[in-house]
Amino acid sequence: MRGPQGDLGSYSDAAAVARFMLSAGCRMWQLLPLNEVSPGQDSPYSASSSCALEPVFVDLAAVEDLHGLTDEEKAALDAARAQERVDFRAYRSVKRGALQRAFAKLRQRGAPRELREFREEHRSWIEDWALYRALHDRRQRSWRDWEPELRDRSVPALEKARSELRDAIDELIYVQWIADQQWRRGRREANELGVQVLGDLPFMVAEDSADVWSLQHLFRFDATVGVPPDAYSAEGQDWGLPVPRWEEMRAQGDPWLHLRAERAAELYDAFRVDHVVGLYRTYARPLDKSPPYFIPAEEPRQREQGERILSLLGEKAEVLAEDLGTVPDFVRASLAAQEIPGTKVLRWENDRGVPRDVAKFSHVSVAVTGTHDTESLWTWWEALPDWEREQQLSQPQLASLRGPDQKRYTPQTRAALLELAYSACSDALLTPITDALGWRERMNTPATVGMHNWTLRLPWTLPELFSAAEPVATARELAHLAGRYHRR
Fold first, then answer.
1. Measuring CA to CA, which residue among 347, 351, 393, 394 is closest to residue 368?
2. Is beta strand 350-351 parallel, antiparallel or unpaired with respect to 342-345?
3. Is the pLDDT of residue 232 over 70?
4. I need a labelling partner for 120 at 20 to 30 A (CA). Which of 180, 206, 348, 408 fits?
5. CA-based nearest residue to 8, from 92, 98, 69, 70
6. How many Å apart are CA 34 and CA 17, to the nearest integer?
7. Kind of pairing between the strands at 270-273 and 282-286
8. What pTM, to 2 d.p., does this model score?
């Protein structure tokens, strides 16, 4: 999103987003993860913490102790505004410098009671996270390459580092307090308008993260997490993430999982559990290139583990499951038994190319036109083999597309595909903004790294969403479909 000035959207903009969504008949806002990303990364799934919020979305105009920007910062923001895609590095640089000045002002008047209370309330994760970040900022390398006493968390070394880095730690916690305040206020305003926020719980955090550094005994480093061959990759994927020691976690009362669940419930009304099959069975790829394997290995243990973890995650907030890719039947049966909504991507709901009837989808499911990892409806439609397109056109909602232009993605194609989605029996429907607008662009291309991923943003500022022809027309169309199919 672009904020009112054309900058990167902020936590304070949640109410404006909610008002636009309501104009489109939408009452749920799905977000990509808001976790702080690892240094040098743009992917919201490369988290350096499962609890810390990403400071790049802080609204500088709402920071009490910040009295304006420097000329250099204003120029950097002007340059970033002019770019079609998000330059996260530029935004982070400006906001980091501005928040440093705000913290210096706050120190002069003393930490307010609210900041002290926030720090105490979140001491279970925030002190270790801030120490990790302060150490990382000075070393600029993974904790695996730190001095042995810090890498291995020697108590005297940690106490010495906390003393030496006290000011940096205090500043990091101050920025988290600002982000937390702004997001909670923004979410509350969205809720008051009638829009719920659906968060996203990444399956794992990065190896170079505060979580893994502080809980090393709960992870293994002789293999990395990935996925077996699926629709995205014929050879499978290696995500380069650490492998959880699920049994050790369980034996110790699952401290990491409880922490994540509690923080997610603080931040969201509900949350999507990313790569839910990985909670049942984690695909480990050994570093020595020996054959990959699942943890646990046997189906009964896999089912018991997955259901235990999902029960834990759902203690304080509703959970939805991302059950895409190579998912065994017993996992979907398990989700159904727990009444946890799975994800139905319309283009993948088929049997050897024959589309499944959307009117027979389970009510306890989420129908989606695509995800942040899929190509757009536009690209998918025009790349379909002729025989498969014919199968798609056999659906009553798409029959009107038959004709000389049926291979092209036209405004009529977009409208028909949206109607197909809205007519599904799934209790919830989620549409990526790119599919709603009928764009060719995609948010992410799996197994690739670069500026083409995660940097897509709308060309309009938030106020312009209510006046520009394209978003206004789209909102009216979606609101009409919501009413027609009783999705209000």
1. 347
2. unpaired
3. no
4. 206
5. 92
6. 16
7. unpaired
8. 0.94
